[in-house]
């Protein structure tokens, strides 16, 4: 390279450096200017966090005024006697309730007898009921006989003897009602011997097999001597029905384990097998 070319190149480099230096110092931002500019520019406010919702003070609940306790109503006094029993008496469901006097299916005599039975029940009078009893028992109307049997049943053991004839009634419903009333009344008697006498009397006329079985079952409360005595009387008495005699024989065999033959054999069995109860266990008759 010749001398002129070298001088020209050096001059060009010097010019370029000078230009770069001017540009750098002319456009370079000083730290102080930057700080001033930053201070002049308002800083963005940070977004405020949402305030928690203020808790509203709960309004105190007003206490409910306690209601005064209702006074318990006094229980009505329980009725006693026949009226108490009639409260539980099942009533017939009919489309229209009519009185006995308004019924068109009854004769005047039948109305009179039924009204007399109702009046005796309302008065709780067995004496009044017995006054109409013969006419009611002889009535061909089974409803009348059933009503008087039901009425007798309410008087319990006081009317047991009056129920006996109805146990042989031709109508099955009347007969069963009499048996039920008689059996219920028998439970009111505490003395086994007294029950035995009543059972013996009843077995003289009853023919219904279920009723006879129930009657002989009542003898289980007796000692063997008294029970066998009743059964022998029914068998040998002659007044009992064939069904009653058969039921008595069956019960005799159940107690002794032997078939009944005659009175002498029954007495012999008692001599060999009967053990009298202790005096402490003996029950005084009513």
3D structure, described in words:
By secondary structure, the protein is an all-alpha fold. Among the domains are: 80-88 and 97-188; 191-274, no CATH class. It has 13 helices and no strands. The protein has helices spanning 3-27, 31-40, 82-86, 108-122, 126-137, 142-154, 160-163, 172-186, 192-203, 209-217, 224-237, 242-256, 263-273. The longest helix has 25 residues, at 3-27. The termini are far apart.
Task: Please name the defining characteristics of this protein.
286 residues, mainly alpha, 0% strand
Find the count of extended strands (DSSP E, 2+ residues).
0
What's the helix count?
13
Terminal CA distance reads: 169 Å
The sequence of SSEs as H and E is: HHHHHHHHHHHHH
Residue windows where pLDDT falls under 50 for at least 5 positions: none
Please compute the radius of gyration using only Cα atoms. 57 Å
**Would you tell me the overall average pLDDT?**
77
Task: Give the strand content.
Answer: under 5%
Shape: elongated
**What is the structural class?**
mainly alpha
- What is the percent of helical residues? 55-70%
Largest sheet: none
